[in-house]
Amino acid sequence: MTDTPNQSATGSRIDTGRVLDFAREYGVLIIIGMLLVGLSFASDSFFTARNLLNILNQSAPLAIIACALTLVIIGGGFDLSTGAIFGVASVTAGWLAVNFDPYLAILAGPALGFLLGAINGAIITGFGVHSFLVTLATGLVYRGLAILITDGSLIPVRIEEFSWLGRERIGLVNVAVIVLLLFGAAMTLLLNGTTFGRKVFAVGGNEEAALLSGIRTNRIKILTFCLTGMAAGLAGVISVSRISMAEPQAGTGMELEAIASVILGGTSILGGSGAVWRSVSGVLLIALIGNGFNILNVNPFFKDLTTGVIIVIAVALAASARRR
Amino acid sequence: MTMLKRAALLAAALAPTAAMAQDDGLNIAFLAASSQNGFNQAVYAGIEAAAADYDNVTTEIFDGEFSAQVQFSQVEDLVAGGRFDALIVTPNDTVGIATALEQATAAGVPVAATLFPIGPDLSQMEPQVDGLVTTVAADPSIGARIQAEAVVEHCEGIDPCRVVVLIGQLVFPFDNLRYETFQEVLGEHDNIEIVATGEGNYSPEESLVAMQDILQANPDIDVVLSNADQHLMGAEIALDDAGIDVSDVYLIGGGLNQITVDGIRQGLYDASLAQFPASMGAAALDAVVGHLRGEEVPTWINERELREDVPAIVDREWLEAHPDFEAEWQG
């Protein structure tokens, strides 16, 4: 009979431990849940299908980039050129839509992004330079291209055959959200359901071991950069078609938002572990904060402060989960 | 005749020649806030056009990359290099750049400012930096007041008149001043209510996101008031996506680029506060060249008086009466 209290105490410790483990593992989801509940109480306008779809629609371009960037980061790389690829794909698509063919423009964005990603991958693997430095440099080159194409000016693209991608809906759901869901599913399948995905984990976990086990690590790395470039190009096209305007500065800072989202979701910045859903969660977390501020009409001065505090909490939870 | 006297005579004889030689090769640097920005490019186009009217004036543009630090270093480098006879600056940081420009004027390189005054007081157009030749700008609060008064006029007979403000970034002192002016003018009218404020960051994309969110909580609005035309581009899309007839909402922006002029003509927007970057650049160049030639030049050239053929607020009615009007920058 005297064991009972001890057993109870042990059970309580186990329960607390499990709760803490869960909180660490799924910290970003818990914070999203808390924000959803808090904002629903704070504003009647928040928890509506329209607003939630609105958030998804707004987040689609960044989430698409984050999905593919997850593969680069799991593979031990880093891509600081996604914002610039987004910009150059935006203005290229806008220019093509106005001067040639809207459908060709929609295809050209991702294709150009794929090519620019391939250039990133080829330089990184060919010269053995860290992806951080290479993509920092190529990002400058790509941004310069975007400015050269437009002379620094905006390009209005009010063409229905082009704007459907960013503005049309199927039922209540925007086409861009459907594209995001399909792209996210494809990246998840690629990462978790194919040998390519397993090789990405292997390269990011221990590149030397991967090489010794016969994996062509350079090819895997180049492919991850191609996919990220393609995603940035696709995101750029969606963005231009949504606002009917191509701007050379589009996507400035987006590379850091994408990286922050991936890390915020819990993917390891050191490579070797992570998941696509985590990155999408990271994007949604940041989007929810912005949406909440706009809906509640809170002084914008507090937005960065609040966003920063929430990111620190989420990242701390993710880091503690990795240390266990 | 002593050596000293001979030297003095020679210097006196050569003085006009030296002045002409200097005048023969005036080289003016334009330090753009960013050379990759449509507004700044238009300022430089005005500088180049004005320089072409002289036989002996050349110009170069420098990219400030929207960075206060980059621009500060550029001033130091250009003064140290000694290649330029004068600087024209569109400042990224109106306060921080003052020290560098004081060094320039102290080194004998005259400076003109465009768009904003240099110094801590944004409403003070007279030079706040020793040696500043001229400022081609207008107090941002004056333009903001004119915009807000246009909103007041539109809101007459509408009660409540619900206004959404889209401002650039409140961390920028000039945007803060504009926002305070909007609040002050609109706050004097009981029928007008600012229902929400969003930051557009001079980006159509960010304005779209802010406006979409605002419309979730405030689906019934009467006015979108913005300091920048780029914000209207995002706002208009958000209104249309929300199923709101854009013609029912009064949209007024600022800057008057060609995309907005076309949009007003098509009925997408209602009005814009006129700005003329090319005229601004031309006025600044004429002022520094005049100063270098020893002429008296005004210490303040009012930006709002550069194009007296165009009203402060350009709307559809005025554009219909002036079908050939073209803005000074694309957007």
From TrEMBL, chain A:
Pfam families attached to this UniProt entry: BPD_transp_2
Domain of life of the source: Bacteria
Topology in membrane: Multi-pass membrane protein
InterPro entries: ABC_transp_permease
Membrane-crossing segments per the record: 26-47, 59-78, 111-134, 171-191, 222-241, 262-289, 301-321
Keywords annotated in UniProt: Cell membrane, Membrane, Transmembrane, Transmembrane helix
The keyword Cytoplasm appears for this protein: no
Keyword Transmembrane helix: yes
Localization per Swiss-Prot or TrEMBL: Cell membrane
One function term, GO molecular function aspect: transmembrane transporter activity
Gene Ontology cellular-component terms listed: plasma membrane
Name the UniProt record assigns to this protein: ABC transporter permease
From TrEMBL, chain B:
CC annotations in GO: cell envelope
Domain Periplasmic binding protein, first and last residues per copy: 28-296
Record keyword Signal present: yes
UniProt-recorded Gene Ontology molecular function terms: carbohydrate binding
Pfam families: Peripla_BP_4 (PF13407)
Taxonomy, superkingdom: Bacteria
Subcellular location: Cell envelope
Keywords: Signal
Keyword Transferase: no
InterPro entries in UniProt: Peripla_BP_I, SBP_2_dom
Signal peptide coordinates: 1-21
Family, as annotated: Belongs to the bacterial solute-binding protein 2 family.
This protein's name: Sugar ABC transporter substrate-binding protein
Organism listed in the record: Psychromarinibacter sediminicola
